[in-house]
Automatic annotation (TrEMBL):
Name the UniProt record assigns to this protein: GlsB/YeaQ/YmgE family stress response membrane protein
InterPro entries registered for this protein in UniProt: Transgly_assoc (IPR007341)
Native species: Salipiger mangrovisoli
Transmembrane segments: 35-55, 62-85, 91-112
Principal subcellular localisation of the protein: membrane
Keywords: Cell membrane, Membrane, Signal, Transmembrane, Transmembrane helix
Coiled coil segments of this chain: none
Membrane topology listed for this record: Multi-pass membrane protein
Residues in the signal sequence: 1-19
PANTHER family: UPF0410 PROTEIN YMGE (PTHR33884)
Cell location: Cell membrane
Pfam families the record matches: Transgly_assoc
Family of this protein: Belongs to the UPF0410 family.
Length: 117
């Protein structure tokens, strides 16, 4: 009996609309997307934790740190080019920019919490 290749088995088991996408490249891309998501969450948590420690918050919990880290990276990616600030290319400058963006978010949250009281 002949063994089926894993991608052939996936193509045969998939619904007809998805069968054409079950190529090795399509399956590998899905795996890369999951790895990218995990890396983003881990780096977001680290960046958010670092920003909250810098701001003397002592950490805001894992979920809030991830939100602050990812949000900080988004703020940095949007705001800094608008005002003409560049930290350079690469991982370390991106992390520095994300930490600064997360600090900006922490300041905004603290201002909004103070205004709500």
């Amino acid at each position: 009996m002949r063994k089926l290749h894993i991608f052939t088995a996936l193509a045969l088991a998939a619904p007809p609309a998805l069968a054409q996408d079950a190529t090795p490249d399509a399956v590998a891309t899905g795996g890369n997307a999951l790895v990218s998501l995990i890396i983003t969450l881990v780096i977001g948590a680290i960046v958010g934790w670092l920003a909250s420690v810098i701001m003397k918050g002592g950490g805001s919990g894992l979920v809030m740190d991830i939100i602050l880290g990812i949000g900080g990276a988004l703020v940095a990616g949007w705001l800094f080019p608008l005002i003409g600030v560049s930290f350079g290319a690469g991982l370390v400058p991106s992390i520095i920019a994300a930490v600064i963006g997360a600090i900006i978010l922490i300041l905004i949250v603290r201002l909004l919490r103070g205004a709500a009281r």
